[in-house]
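Hello,

I think I submitted the zinc ion job twice by accident. Can you confirm which output corresponds to this input? Input:
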Amino acid sequence: MRLFRSTALITSPFILALGLNACSADTTKPLEKTTEQAPIVKIVKDDKFTYANYDKVRMTHLSLNLDVNFEDKVLDGTATIDFKIIDDNAHTLHLDTKDLTIRSVQGLASSGEWSAMDYTLSDEDEILGTRLEIPFSKGMNKVRIDYKTSPTAEGLQWLSPEQTAGKEKPYLFSQAQALNARTMTPVQDTPAVRITYDATLRVPDGLLPLMSAEQSKKDKNGEYHFKMPQPIPSYLLAIAVGDIKFKAINDHIGVYAEQYILDASADEFSETPLMEASNAKLYGPYRWGRYDLIVLPPSFPFGGMENPRLSFMTPTLIAGDKSLTNVVAHELAHSWSGNLVTNSSWRDAWLNEGFTSYVENRVMEDLYGVERAVMEQVLGLEDVKRSIENASRPELTHLKLPTDLAHPDDAFTNVAYVKGQFFLQFLEQRFGRDNFDPFLKNYFNHFAFQSVTTEDFIKYLHDELHVKNPDALTSEELKAWVYGPGLPDTFITPISDAFTKVDAARTAWLDDGTVGDTSSWSTHEWLHFLNNFSETLSKEQLKKMNEDFNFNGHQNAEIAFAWYMQAIQGNYSKVDKELESFLMTVGRGKFIYRLYGALAGLNEDARTWAKEVYVKARPGYHPIAQRRIDAIFTKAEAKVEQ
Ligand code: BES
Ligand code: ZN
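Support: Only one job matched these inputs. Its output is below.
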């Protein structure tokens, strides 16, 4: 079916054919504007991972005043919350908390007086935490909560001095996405709600605190002050405290890190200004003031996290040859896709991650050429194919995820990233870059500082692109991408000539043990080489492979990881020493979840060995990684017992 040409949204067969709820089109109309660009919009509550009644009462600002207490491993102080009433019949504010100790709640009356308020805490839910319900009186729009966090808060990792590179000072860093802002502060912890924030922090002498905000120097009382004037979703709240040094890259971009890795990080990320320029050329100016990166301790469980003004990065990116800097392009790209225009629930995570992967790849193409961009697409394709094959049910391979999504963790698979990216590439192919680039730029402007659903995007696509190019795609094609499983028929496989040569080299190596000249191979080519053996390699082959290419203990974490995966599949225990050292020092989930998963699923010996390593490594892992790997072993052990 060709798409209907009408612009009349509600009646458009384009929209009707997709079965979209027409009334949600009305719900994003701004009711009023706050001082910043955050429109207070009436929204239907669509996020099941929050207790917040944000459709009735909406938080607008958070003001934190906290001691960072390394002795007790707690943040301790007050959170003052400004809120607006959306529904006049509402009399209670519902906030998310998890593992917080609430000592008291006060409210600011219209007289200007603070007074103690009643509050209730619900029973604890393992995923959601505890609802904090505060009944407020008429005219009240500010509450202050006296609280402290738990030493085992999932969103905070407290490292002892021995766990840092410098060995002398402790370190703290947060990870709020997806559901962990509520372990740091009471908050309406949903990406549908945007808040401005400020913070006053007290930290022990000799430590530097940083946040996802504008920072000012220590004041005369020894306190640090932070301000985030642009409205952000709670999952972008972030804090890091440690013996952290700074090196500028240019006048508004720089790197924070422990001293041991500062210069190497600044070198590795020296092209960040070019990435910013490329991004801005394509999608409009960077809107957040400074852009800094912080290279965290190795237990950081992600490659990167797009905390505004201050991306958090894993040290495993510091490969020495800038081969892994697409992760910088990715986190920076979130300054448009994700931080400026945000998925309004985790069911729409592809709006953050798929858009960002697309933008990341466009920037890589712009700066380093089509060949590198296509290689990264093909590596992504290899990942997404595996995720699609392993999905526990087909709905989890849709871009729009099902209502019964069990946990936001299930939303951040390669489907959101790579299928999302390929969908935008598909739209780009169909509408042409000349149309698609300005469309996307306008999308970021149109929805700036708002949270949007997949359906909002589709309506915008319809109004801005489809009606002007009605023959470019059909609603069935669109539906297959967004509401259908796997990669649809209209997906065009990216082909890398460089990888075709690598394929030939792999075949030759399997046939006669030779590969030809690999001296010019990039990290990408080695990864493609390693990841595409159609059969499990024998121990002899693995031995020869390591003799030929020296993968064991490779300094590039991606290559080392790809090699260990092959070695585990071939039950090649000669790698155990290096693999153990990798697992003991690297906490990046992308690597360690799959390594433990492969070991736990291989055989009893491997599972026992992995468990022994895990018992030793676990105290150094981030609480998020601990939860994920605990689940991997529980599942593997349950399978054995069956
Ligand atoms: N926002 C994500 C990290 C994240 C996802 C944190 C889900 C918590 C829950 C970040 O932007 C990201 O996608 N990081 C990737 C890097 C990227 C190049 C694919 C990662 O960590 O590997
Ligand atoms: Zn991302």
